[in-house]
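Figure 6 in text form: structure in, sequence out.
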């Protein structure tokens, strides 16, 4: 057994103190490993950079010799030592859905960041003992025995975030005699009746489609902020959701809340139970390279929204808005012509989830979701409504997850082909593994269910008129993307250039508002690292968008297939 003691003295400094006590089992050397990344985020996190004052002692308090073998692996000499005490502090000052945070109001831990495992002892039980204020509650999916948490293995511990606070709000709902807990940390006024009604509907819909749930209990852990935020991280028996501002989550941000919760719940099957063979088991010490990010996040993004519609939580307008947003994100990124969605998922391990080099790659979320929409509609059309992408995912759940087998790229492709035929194969060749234009294939697929793509002008006026996209950074208007062959591009304007003036006037307000009443020709003052120049740009029409609309007079077959798709 591995015993952990967690405490802190000055929460405003954000350091959490850890003690690990265990037997040596008679070995001459012990190896203590901290994870380098966390499941759900396919990039190196290098969590050891937050560790300070690491030391090892025997049970009499004598210091033991140790050294670091790698950036996150410690070796301790334990010859003739019966018990060992490891102590260290961890800097917890990042608040998102997959991090650690400490202040006067809460202790929030994602154990994969800050708890060690011992090499060759990953299957041992962990007990977590907390020295926290007496009025604090603990929100966690781990077994809770009088505020002592128990994990049956390191894998369970790594997947079990913890919130400790005296302001936690809690309730639950039940589906098929299973409890689904709702924990809220942060200031917000909740409509519990509405929450439980909607959550019950989409939870039941997802369970019904798979025919079962991978675990016997589930926890939604919400971190509610007073500022704008949106982030979710999936785990085996729980998820953490970061949302804000808190006074809008039951109003303006409620669609966002439902969207991210449905998405993360679907991950309980897809990526936690239905797992790529490259990540079964996880190797926490290095990159777990895989190309099926388009399945992990593409399927989940698409299905999470579809589940909200077919469970009657979303109406048509709310659902189609999610699909149009995927199309917008796809069309605004010229990386779609440079790197496929499969290769882009692989490269998350290279440059993470940040923007990175402009138009180098695509996102496995919207681009993967559009590929899955195309595959779903082609399967429905091919099978005359008998099968769908649901059939594929249930097949993976039954034949792989329930048999504790990981699936390969070929497995996923072959199952899709089994249900959808050769048109599906073309989607894999052209769009999942290739960089051909999505739009003709997408439009063709949509028409089978009585929908079509129509042109829409970009509401971002600098993008629409001149072909560049900028953001405010430290009070400066910085260009981040430029459409190839646009007015901006042809006049030598590039990423990281600063827009200083328009017609000789500094930009003091929102650029979009400033461009609402402009003339045809605009003089921009553009500054880069070494020069400043005035450039006259003529209005054009760039970064064109498309949106899904219903066909006015659909055929009987289109109506039939649309019903099969949505219901």
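Output sequence:
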């Amino acid at each position: 057994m591995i015993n952990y003691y967690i405490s802190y003295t000055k929460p405003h400094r954000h350091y959490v103190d850890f003690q690990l006590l265990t037997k040596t089992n008679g070995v001459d050397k012990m190896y203590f490993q901290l994870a380098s990344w966390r499941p759900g985020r396919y990039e190196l996190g290098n969590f050891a950079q937050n560790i300070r004052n690491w030391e090892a002692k025997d049970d009499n308090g004598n210091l033991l010799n140790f050294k670091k073998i790698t950036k996150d692996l410690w070796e301790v000499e334990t010859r003739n030592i019966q018990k060992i005490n490891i102590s260290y502090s961890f800097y917890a000052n990042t608040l998102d859905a997959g991090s650690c945070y400490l202040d006067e109001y809460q202790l929030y831990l994602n154990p994969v960041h800050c708890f060690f495992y011992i090499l060759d002892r990953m299957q041992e039980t962990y007990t977590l003992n907390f020295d926290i204020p007496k009025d604090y509650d603990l929100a966690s999916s781990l077994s809770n025995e009088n505020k002592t948490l128990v994990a049956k293995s390191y894998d369970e511990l790594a997947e079990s975030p913890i919130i400790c606070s005296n302001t936690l709000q809690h309730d639950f709902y039940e589906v098929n005699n299973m409890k689904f807990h709702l924990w809220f940390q942060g200031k917000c006024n909740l409509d519990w009746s509405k929450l439980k009604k909607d959550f019950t509907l989409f939870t039941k819909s997802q369970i019904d489609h798979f025919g079962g749930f991978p675990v016997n209990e589930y926890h939604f852990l919400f971190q509610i902020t007073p500022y704008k935020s949106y982030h979710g991280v999936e785990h085996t028996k729980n998820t953490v959701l970061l949302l804000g501002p808190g006074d809008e989550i039951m109003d303006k941000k409620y669609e966002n809340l439902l969207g991210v919760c449905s998405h993360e719940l679907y991950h309980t099957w897809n990526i936690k139970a239905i797992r790529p063979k490259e990540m079964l088991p996880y190797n926490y010490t290095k990159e777990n390279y895989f190309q099926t990010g388009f399945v992990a996040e593409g399927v989940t993004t698409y299905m999470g929204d579809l589940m909200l519609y077919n469970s009657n939580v979303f109406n048509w307008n709310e659902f189609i808005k999610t699909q149009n947003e995927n199309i917008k994100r796809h069309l605004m990124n010229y990386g779609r012509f440079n790197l496929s969605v499969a290769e882009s998922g692989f490269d998350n391990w290279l440059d993470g989830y940040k923007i990175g080099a402009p138009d180098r790659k695509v996102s496995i979320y919207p681009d993967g979701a559009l590929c899955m929409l195309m595959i779903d509609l082609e399967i429905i059309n091919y099978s005359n409504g008998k099968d769908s992408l649901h059939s594929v995912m249930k097949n993976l759940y039954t034949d792989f997850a329930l048999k504790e087998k990981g699936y390969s790229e070929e497995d996923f492709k072959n199952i899709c082909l089994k249900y959808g035929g050769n048109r599906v194969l073309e989607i894999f060749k052209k769009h999942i593994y290739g960089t051909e234009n999505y739009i003709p294939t997408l439009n063709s697929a949509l028409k089978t269910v009585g929908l079509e793509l129509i042109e829409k002008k970009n509401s971002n006026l600098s993008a629409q008129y001149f072909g560049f996209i900028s953001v405010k950074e430290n009070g400066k208007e910085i260009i981040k993307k430029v459409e190839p062959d646009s007015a901006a591009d042809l006049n030598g304007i590039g990423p990281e250039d600063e827009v200083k003036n328009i017609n000789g006037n500094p930009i003091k307000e929102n650029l979009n508002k400033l461009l609402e009443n402009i003339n045809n020709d605009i003089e921009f003052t553009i500054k880069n690292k070494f020069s400043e120049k005035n450039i006259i740009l003529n209005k054009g029409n760039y970064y064109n968008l498309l949106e899904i609309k219903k066909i006015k007079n659909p055929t009987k077959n289109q109506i039939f297939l649309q019903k099969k798709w949505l219901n």
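Caption detail: The chain has a mean pLDDT of 97.
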